[in-house]
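In response to reviewer comment 3 from the previous cycle, which asked for concrete evidence that the modeling workflow produces usable outputs, we include below a single protein chain processed end to end. The sequence was submitted unchanged, and the resulting structure tokens are shown without manual editing.
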Amino acid sequence: MRANPGGQLDPSEVLGRDDFIRRLWRILKRQSLVLSAERRMGKTSVIKKMVDEGPEDMLLIYHDLEGIQTPLEFVEVIFRDVENHLSRFRRNAQRTRRFLEQMEGASFMGLKFPKIAAPHWKGLLNKTLEDLMDHQNHTVIFFWDELPLMLYKIHQSEGEQVAMEILDALRSLRQMHTGLRMVFTGSIGLHNILSSLKQAGYANAPTSDMGIEEVPPL
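The workflow returned the following structure tokens.
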């Protein structure tokens, strides 16, 4: 196998991380996780290997959020992932669809939310997760790569308050659904985003319920 610095590796080619990944699975049995490290330390490779080779008694969903710039786009990504899973059982996210249909002037086609739904992203997020968790007997883990970068873009485009609300909404969902886990990671570090938000007056601790693990060098 040749070295591939900075490139994408097949999960089978990710070597030397087995003990670390076993540790992460033990943590995820009890709480969600924030993975931190400097750039090019292999955070993405680790979580992709976990999703590819994870336990069969868990639902594992990976998504790269680098291109997301609004809360509605974020919820739309989650909705699509949930619908993709439910479709295997000939089901769909009925609560979310009913919620959309109740919006005056909203027309919903396919898997893309209408722009009129933007102010209602929290309701859509809650309904989508309810739709998923109601059809699950297993632990659900969302692996969200570049979540800090997404928050930075939303912070820049829509203000600090909206970024704060996303973090608070995700924490609330983790507390509401005992079988729900989230893994946050990304190249710019969530702590940098939180520091910026705290300077703007953010007083909450949205990841205090999550474990924090540093990805070590090989």
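Residues 71-87 form the longest helix (17 residues). We consider this sufficient to address the reviewer's concern, and the full set will be provided in the supplementary archive.
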